[in-house]
Each structure stands twice: as C-alpha cells, then as structure tokens.
Amino acid sequence: xxxxxxxxxxxxxxxxxxxxTRGPTYRHLRQFDMQGVRFKKMHGPFLFLLDKVEVGRRLPxxxxxxxxxxxxxxxxxHSGEKTLLYxxxxxxxxxxxLLAGCMLSLIGDTGAGGIVGGLxxxxxxxxxxxxxxxxxxxRRDQDxxxxxxxxxxxxxxxxxxxxxxxxxxxxxxxxxxxRHHPLYNELRKAAVDWNNGxxxxxxxxxxxxxxxxxxxxxxxxxxxxxxxxxxxxFVLALRDLSxxxxxxxxxxxxxxxxxxxxxxxxxxxxxxxTIVVMIGAPAFMMxxx
Length: 289
Known about the structure:
- By secondary structure, the protein is mainly α.
- The protein has helices at residues 2-21, 44-53, 55-58, 60-74, 79-108, 113-160, 165-175, 182-195, 200-211, 214-226, 231-263, 265-288.
- 21% of the residues are buried.
- It is a multi-pass membrane protein.
- It is found in: Cell membrane.
- Residues 152-280 form the Type II secretion system protein GspF domain.
C-alpha cells in the first residue's frame, strides 16, 4: 500500500512545484485554439519538461511529422508552439492515467495492478492521439482531393462564360455559403488575403502552402501560369488538369470503399458465428436428449 501512495504523492507534489515555478512562463500559450486540447491549464510543467529535454533535437523525425500534421489541421502560424501544446496534452493524459492507477490501487486494494494498468493506458493514449491526428490529416487531404475536381469544373464553366479567374473563385466560394469544408475554408482565407491587399499570386501561393496537398499545388501552379493569358488556352489547361484530377478522385473513392469493406469483415464474421450458434445449439441439445 505504501508504493501507490509514494508515487501519487510524488506526481502531485512535483506537478504543483513545477506549475508554481515554471508554469507562468508558458501561460501565454493558452491563447492558441486547438480542437481536442482540453487541459491547457495543466500544461505548464509538461511544457517545461519538453523544453528541458529538448524533444525537438532528440526526436527530430517524429516532431517534424507532428508539426507538419499540426500545420495542416491548425494552420501554419505558431505551428511550433502548437506542436509543443499537443505533446504537453499527451503527457498530461499519461500523468492523469498514472495518477488514476495509483488512486485505484489505494482505494481498490489491487496492489501494483492499478499502477501497472495506469502506466499501460498512459503509454497507449499518446500513441492513440498521434494516430488519430494522422488519420484526421489523411481524411482532410482526401476530402480536398475529392472536392477539387468539382471546384475546377465550376471555375472552367465560369471562366468560359466570361468571368475572370478571381471572380470565378469568389463565386464558387460564395455559392458554398457557410459549408465547413477544408478546401473552401482555405479558399475563404485566400479571398480575405487578396481583399486585404495581397496580390492574387501571393494569396494563391499561401493557399497552396496551407493546403499541403500535391494535387492542390498542381492546381494553383496551373492557374498562376495561365490565368494572365485567359481565353481558350486557360480553359484548355484547366480541362486537362480536371481530367487528371477526376482519375485521382476515382482512385481515392475506390480506396475508401475498400477500407469500408475491410472494416465490415469482422462484424460479418461475428454475425456468422452468432447465427451458427443460434442454429446449431438447439440441434446439439436435441441430440443430447
């Protein structure tokens, strides 16, 4: 009974000391709005530990991949600080799970089982959070790739009807209303940029950088290379690109369908065995009689 009490006390006291002495240094980071980050007020000690350990230097590949994913989900600005916040959130969960395990050992009289269980869950949760972040980024990229050919077709029709490229894009964005879609969200930011004085080229380059999708980069490059010429050459270039993007959209849709089918395998097998048991059990019972 002494070990859980010692571990819980050490975790609590060390967090309080670090929060009082080092926490105020990182209090300004609470202003960053990140969906899914719930324990900002508890991050101070863990941010201090991340800085002290120099996690970016010791785990450069992992931190680079996480920062790249954070940039896509939460924007390019302050992506380094947001990455540290996400890491601090993971450490907070680990600390809470370990503390809960110690409490369970004290209250439930489970010996070291509660501590071990809390430690296992505390290690598993950060891995699950990283996996969930990468899955969200993949879904975002797929949503952009699926919607891009539709956007391109609308731009081709509007430019062919005599609209300028800028007005065609603005019309496409306006036609979506308040629809929450990653591609149109980034286009709205681009529209705000060029309304605030940025040139069309600068705003579109920033749009491409924020999206971080190869197909969007090809789209923006094609537009920037051809929009000054206009007319038939511009429409022809966009139509050629549209054909390529529709093929990629088909490939993405096919891959998503295969993933959905694979997820149904286990429920189907479970249902099959349930039916076998329901049908076979009465037969075996009759044979035993």
